[in-house]
Amino acid sequence: MSGKLRAYLVDDELPALKRLSRMLADTGRVDVVGSTTNPEQALRFLATEEPDVLFLDIQMPVLNGFDLLSRLDRQPVVIFVTAYDQYALQAFQVNSIDYLLKPVEPEQLERALTKLALLRGGQQPPFQERPEFRALIQELSRAISSPQPKFPERMPVRIGERTQFLDIARITHFFSEDRLTYAATEARKYCVDWPIAELEQKLDPAVFVRIHRAVLLNLHWVEELTPLFAGRLVVRLKDQKRTELTVARDRARSLKTHLGL
To answer: How far apart are CA 118 and CA 98, in angstroms?
Structure first.
């Protein structure tokens, strides 16, 4: 017996699957006993095999991670893998051992493996014995599979006494200045009626990301990212002015994740 953890991996993105498999092998603590991009194939494997841990992507087409779990008769120990912060909270609602945010970092992985090793050899985690466990994962599965909210495509902006409707795709970023909030475009800035915090909730979080307490960035306008001292970053936009915006240190990780770095 090797003493290594036996892991099975499920992720619909093959590059992410290969990267995680390679990282697990590099730790020297894990044997990857199988992996797949097909959740149906994972169901067949898990019906007959019992790995020590299942690394499971949450957002997958046809069958998401919670849906996969709801179809299993025997619940494995799970470490969720997700590109979205909102799913991390849902993952902890089902009391997974841990979750990993994509792109997975070695420090994240070591933390999760250490937590898992502390539980190894014990009984099945108590949360999996609760009768409400299956109902909870079914509820989360339905929530993820339900139609996504429709985000506005245009926004009213004030120009003196007039109200103009601006295509949101034209907005490079929003910023606060002197207690007012502005929408910036290539041509000019427009005053809007919502503070940055409300805009962050109102707009598509896959497109608009908070990079500073006073700046909400449209990712579609990002051209270049440059590191600064003390963990901060500078974003250069692809507008005519090649606008540069500073990313706060506590926002840098989130921005990189949204950009797939």
So the answer is: 13
